[in-house]
Amino acid sequence: MVEQEEIVPFSSLKDGRKILTVSQLNRQSRLLLESKISAVWVEGEISNFKHHSSGHIYLTLKDESAQIQAAFFSQYQRGLRFELKDGLKILAFCRVSIYEARGQYQLYIERVEPQGVGALQLAFQQLKEKLAKEGLFAEERKRPIPKFPKTVGVITSPTGAAIHDILNVINRRFCGTHVLLYPVKVQGEGAASEITTAVKTMNEQAEADVLIVGRGGGSLEDLWAFNEEPVARAVFESQIPVISAVGHESDWTICDLVADLRAPTPSAAAELVVSSRLELEDRLRECKERMGFSMTGMFERYQERLSDLASSAAFRQPRFLLDQFTGQVDDLGRRMGSRLTTLVSSKSQVFQGIMGRFNALNPLAILERGYSVSFNEKGDILKDIRQISEGDVMRTRLHKGSLVSKVSAITP
Predict the structure, then answer these.
(1) For residue 314, is it within any domain?
(2) Dihedral class, residue 387 (left if φ above 0, else alpha if ψ from -120 to 50, else beta)
(3) Quick count: other Cβ atoms within 10 Å of Cβ 2?
(4) How many domains are contained in the chain?
(5) Which of 9, 82, 247, 288 could disulfide-pair with 123, CB 3.0 to 4.6 Å?
(6) What angle (nearest 5°) sits at the alpha carbon of residue 203, between those of residues 197 and 205?
(7) 327 located within any domain
(8) For residues 397 and 372, is the Cβ–Cβ distance under 8 A?
(9) In the predicted model, is pLDDT for residue 258 greater than 80?
(10) Is the same domain home to 141 and 248?
């Protein structure tokens, strides 16, 4: 048997032994492993997930009894639609190799699929949970759609069936409504970016009263632009009310959940956004008839009241009614005079009684009986000889008038 050529050259010692350096051993092991297993699908659960600032992802892929390190470089992540995280079970298409610098056996991932559920469906669920926690789907923040918009902004493909359906419905239901089209791609690469830009631009221009964002039906892949996070945030931040009209009856997109109103088809969106002219005319006709009936009934009631007044005694014999009122006024005058006289007499008696009690207590009344009151120079009433001395001047109040005297002697 012919011996194969060594991949890595050996170093020989004097005793004939062949020796590899660590680098040579790791390199030979890597080449041997890569030659035996070039690429393989590996199933496992993610743990130790780390997203490096460079964009590369490092993780451990494990099952019940073993684990292996793996690297997922950024250039292979472009088609990844869902978020990798610890605990997620995946299928990874990867190369098996050895990182020579550390002699570490690991996987180099090139493609990832979620295990048990489609990648798009998983991405939808992850984004839905994230935005729901932030409140983007809350019903209380959603605004009412204007009933009679003058201008309807439509964000869709200019060549698709959606714009034709919308125009047909609007022209049929309320001809004269202005439609402002912002043409965008509705599927494929760059569609989400164009839809996002359209929503922001129409808000900046502020010409539309309501926006319809949508397209005709299609597969989950076809409708994926309406499940992108930038589109959802643009619709959430829109100052103009938004109707999502992605053409699918049963399934909802993220755009449907964020929008102020969801319509199952573009045609249904057009019907929701404009009222039917015929329906409006019928309603106006009904209002006119009801108003006419109401006014007729009111006129009839007032006519009856006027007839009753015209046949009353006040209109047939006004002088008789005036004489009755005159008699009532005279009677009221007499009653008021009598009541007033009685009231004055009663109050006068009360006043006389109060004055009698007041005069009985009045100190001046005592002077009428021959008594007098003396005051010192300060004006204090003299009650005791100690309040005055010989030679002081005092004033005496009599019943009529007063006199001033000088004290010549004091008798205890």
Answers:
(1) no
(2) alpha
(3) 4
(4) 3
(5) 82
(6) 100
(7) no
(8) yes
(9) yes
(10) yes
Each residue of 90-140: pLDDT tens digit?
Answer: 788 888 888 888 888 888 888 887 776 566 677 788 888 888 899 998 999
Instruction: Give Cβ neighbours of residue 408 (< 8 Å, ≥ 6 apart).
Output: 390
Instruction: Give 306-365 as a DSSP string.
Output: HHHHHTSHHHH-HHHHHHHHHHHHHHHHHHHHHHHHHHHHHHHHHHHHHHHHHHHH-THH
Give the domain range for residue 398.
366-406
Partners of 183 in the beta sheet?
156
* 254 shares a domain with 133: yes
Residue 10 has pLDDT above 80, yes or no: no
Query: pLDDT tens for residues 24-55?
Result: 888 888 888 777 887 888 888 888 888 888 88
Q: Residue 2: pLDDT above 50?
A: no
Distances (CA, A) of 278 to 49, 147, 174, 283: 62, 15, 8, 9
Q: Where are the alpha helices (DSSP H) in 4-153?
A: 22-36, 119-134
Q: Is residue 83 domain-shared with residue 134, that is, in the same domain?
A: no
Query: Which of 94, 116, 138 delimits the end of a domain?
Result: 116
CA dihedral 341, 347, 348, 351 (to 10 degrees): -170
CA-based angle 99:104:108, to the nearest 5?
55
Q: Where are the alpha helices (DSSP H) in 206-276?
A: 229-237, 254-258, 266-273
Tell whether 243 is covered by a domain. yes
Please state whether the predicted TM-score (pTM) of the whole model is above 0.90. Answer: no
- The C-alpha atoms of residue 336 and residue 315 are separated, in whole angstroms, by 31
> What pLDDT is attached to residue 15?
61
Helix (H) or strand (E) holding 162: helix 161-173
Read off φ and ψ for residue 406, nearest 5 degrees. Answer: -115, 135
Residue with tokens 């002219």: 277
The closest alpha carbon to 229, from 264, 260, 257, 201, belongs to 257
Rounded Cα distance between 180 and 192, Å, is 20
Q: What rounded mean pLDDT belongs to the chain?
A: 82
Asked whether residue 3 carries a pLDDT value surpassing 50, the answer given is no
46 domain-assigned: yes
Judged on CB neighbours under 10 Å (0-12, 13-18, 19+), 306 is exposed
Note whether 256 and 246 are within 8 A (CB).
yes
Cβ–Cβ under 8 Å, residues 49 and 59? yes
Last residue of a domain, one of 229, 256, 278: 278
